[in-house]
Amino acid sequence: MDTARTHQKVPIPVEDRRACLGPDGTVALVTRCLRLISGRWKLPILFRLYADEVLRSSQMLRDIPGVSQKMLTQHLRELEEDRLIVRSDFGEQPPRVEYRLTDRGQALMPVLLAARQFADDHKA
C-alpha cells in the first residue's frame, strides 16, 4: 500500500488533480500567498498599516517592539516589491517617507483577519 498518496484525500475527481497540485493549482496559489507574508515582521507591518492608513518608518519602529531599523527596512522593501504597500518619498529635507497599503494589500487583509479569527476560534 502506498502511503504517500495524500492527493487522493483532496475532494476532486482523479482526472482533475492538476487543479490542486499542478503548477497553477490550489497548492501553488496558497503557497504564493504565504510567501508574501512570510517573515517575522511582515504581519505586524501589515496590521499596523491596516490600523493607521499612513505611517512613517519611525512610527513603525516605535509601535513594533523588537524590530530593528535594518529588518524593518528589509521587510518594507519586500512588501513594496510584492506590491502590498507603497512608499511615498516627498524628496524633502529632512527626509519624509510614508508607507500605506496598496489595493492589493487591502485585498489581503480580509484573508489575514479570517486567519486571525480561525486561530482565535481554535485555540489549543
From TrEMBL:
SUPFAM superfamilies listed in its UniProt record: Winged helix' DNA-binding domain
Please list the GO terms describing molecular function: DNA binding
* Domain HTH hxlR-type as annotated: residue spans: 20-124
For this UniProt record, the keywords arranged alphabetically read as follows:
DNA-binding, Transcription, Transcription regulation
Name the InterPro entries for this protein: HTH_HxlR, WH-like_DNA-bd_sf, WH_DNA-bd_sf
Q: What is this protein called?
A: DNA-binding HxlR family transcriptional regulator
Name the source organism.
Inquilinus ginsengisoli
